Amino acid sequence: xxxARRNSAGLPESTAPASLPVTRLRPAYQQVxxxxxxxxxxxxxxxxxxxPPESEIGxxxxxxxxxxxxxxxxxxxxxxxxxxxxxxxxxxxSQVDPDxxxxxxxxxxxxxxxxxxxxxxAILEARELLExxxxxxxxxxxxxxxxxxxxxxMEREKRTRGRSMKFREHQHFHDVIMQATGNGLxxxxxxxxxxxxxxxxxxxxxxxxxxTMVDEEHEQIIELIAAGDAEGASEAMRxxxxxxxxxxxxx
Length: 251
What we know:
The protein is mostly helical. 63% of the residues lie in helices and 3% in strands. Helix 9 runs antiparallel to helix 10.
């Protein structure tokens, strides 16, 4: 049997790891919030459901009412629960508002944008990965009112002057394409990206030739979507997004 390894003092060396692979415990209120959030997300608690009284929740978790209140404040700040007073009051699971989700996502992307974790190039790449295939979907699913809205946006874009108004109509054009997919999640995911690009990275000015190019490419995209040409529409959108990359800068 091999002898144990010894150090310079002649004592046996420890074979235990330098550090244990443990998970650091989170504050009690955060652990309560995390578990309640899981119950909401997995459907155990549905929108409109009333949560048990604070004392009962505290008893279930073995924590004080003040800890429960702090956990509920965390969930309320995330829009997951709401509290009302009165005889019919209490804490209820919130009804989800798509605009609210989009707002939260926009805030998160905006705060991270420009950092090493989320440079402009990553945002533009993500936009293309979402919007190019979505344009093909819009060509297959669009209805007449979507085509009317795209052409209206096109006409307003031609008439507007000034950077902010031009890009507002440009953004609206792209929003309508997302709506034409019939997939609400795509709209929720892309709107925050559009907003962050226009508010955080938009260059101060663009030459008239740039807007002429944008108008021509938008018109081509409309016609391809109207024709139901999914492949052509998505390829035209790919070229368009590549051509407008120069409108954004991290400087």
